[in-house]
């Protein structure tokens, strides 16, 4: 049964949590757009496509925004209560800090559960849609734009140069159109003026040219006796296909096998299959490599019982001089073949192992990111009660510092896990292993009303140290 004190702390936490969550999510989305801004500009994308991408990308960034929102909101909540001396009143009433944190602990555990379900069922779909849409946007051609005095070669097979465009961009002058890699179509067109417009369905670019020449070469391009035709015209109509400039959507199935697009159940199946493939490499070596080594068949043969072999001091003494060169060449070829096969199999095994590590990393990520909310709460709540500062000043700075440590440790651990330097388990839980002791230390300090971040405490300690050093110096002078 919730008491009034529990309702008080929950209400004080919910408001800052919701606000900081959406602010954090907005910052993360803007940071993502800042990295890919060059791929979005000039593509002629509709507002619907951009909003759809923002929607999917926002969903994909939720697991990263939740821990930071929990850290900042818990720090602000306990900092505000400490600044208004409500924490002092609560402790004076005999209520411990752990009892006061208990309702928020249950709320954060609920957030962890929601984050896990969101990351397991919604994030794979959001990652799939956003990754596919981002690839389509990145590989889409820029919107059609011909500049004055510059050859434009984005239309496949053509290079177009316009000397001057009027204010409305439809009337053009001094036009040159060069057709590349063609044998049976117009090769070269020059016109003094004309009208340029895009068809209503934006599928074709139409040039209505006037007062110009068309140059054409016919015949086999590999021969010298080709026909060169020059034809003057008063009006000439030329169309260019612009279908390649239109934004085209790919099917989601293109990226469906990526480990980030899988749930934990699907990851378990994939990890089990990859492990079986890795274990099958020893059988593959015995099946494909060992039979090519001829002496393997004679390893168990009793060659020492033969008189000639027992008297020989080395294998070289058993080989006739006429056969040594032939045996040497065959041995060298066999060794080279074995080396190539071993390198190929080792490369395949390494790729399978890296793929296995990536799937295991993603499996641990779904749990570690959801529990990161609890870890950062254990840091934010006691830290806010120690600092006793509310608002967005000190809490924001401290939250950013701890979140950077959390993010840096997580990224470093993931990089080590992908390289095989560290196991996927330790790599993905590295930030948790480091920050949990910090949270427990801060909680212990907050329970004992520590002066850890009190300037006056350190100032008084510095003064006491100065007095001690001064007295010690005076005592030495008196003794001398």
UniProtKB/TrEMBL annotation:
* One annotated GO biological process: lipopolysaccharide transport
Keyword Magnesium in record = no
* Coiled coil (residue ranges): none
For whether the record's keyword set contains Ion transport, the answer is no
Could you list this entry's UniProt keywords, alphabetically sorted: Cell membrane, Membrane, Transmembrane, Transmembrane helix
What cellular-component terms does GO give this entry?
Answer: ATP-binding cassette (ABC) transporter complex
InterPro entries with a match to the protein in the record: LptG/LptF_permease (IPR005495)
Q: Which domain of life is it from?
A: Bacteria
**TM segments?**
12-34, 54-82, 103-123, 367-385, 392-410, 422-442
Classify the main location: membrane
Name of the featured protein: Lipopolysaccharide export system permease protein
Which species is this UniProt entry from?
Answer: Cnuella takakiae
